[in-house]
Amino acid sequence: MIYLLEIFSNLCNHIVLSKIKKPNEFCNKIIGFLKYDQDEIVLAAITAVRNLIITQENELFFEKKLSDYIEQINRLLAGNISEVR
Questions:
Q1: CA distances to 31, 62, 82, 83 from 25, in Å
Q2: 3-state class of 16 per DSSP?
Q3: 35 close to 72: Cβ distance less than 8 angstroms
Q4: Tens digit of pLDDT per residue, the chain (85 long)?
Q5: Distance, C-alpha 24 to centroid of its chain
Q6: Distances 37 to 16, 32, 41, 47, 54 between C-alpha atoms, Å
Q7: Could you give the CA distance from residue 73 to residue 85 in angstroms, rounded to a whole number?
């Protein structure tokens, strides 16, 4: 599964969310991978989100949806801080 997610995350550079029928569901699936315990899956999901945001149209979508994803972002940041200690 990790290989498919890595390939998918690279393809996210070319995806425009406004051209997808259900962009919210699409993004929720990707954000759902941030909840996994496997670091490789989480990193691939982060890369996918980062690559989606590169497109200016997608950036606007994520700015509008930021409040929906802030919990996952906070969890990731808190997890990384505890790992450093």
A1: 10, 13, 31, 31
A2: coil
A3: yes
A4: 778 888 998 999 999 999 999 998 998 898 888 888 888 888 898 889 889 988 888 888 888 877 777 776 676 666 654 444 4
A5: 12
A6: 28, 11, 8, 16, 26
A7: 19
Per-residue pLDDT at 79: 63
Rounded (5°) CA angle 58-3-37: 80
Cα within 13 Å of Cα(46), Cβ side: 13
Residue 35 identity (one-letter amino acid): K
pTM greater than 0.90: no
CB-facing half-sphere around the CA of 50: CA atoms within 13 A? 10
- Closest Cα partner for 35 from 64, 8, 75? 75
Return the structure tokens found at 3. 């290989």
Cα distance between residue 64 and residue 43, in whole Å: 23
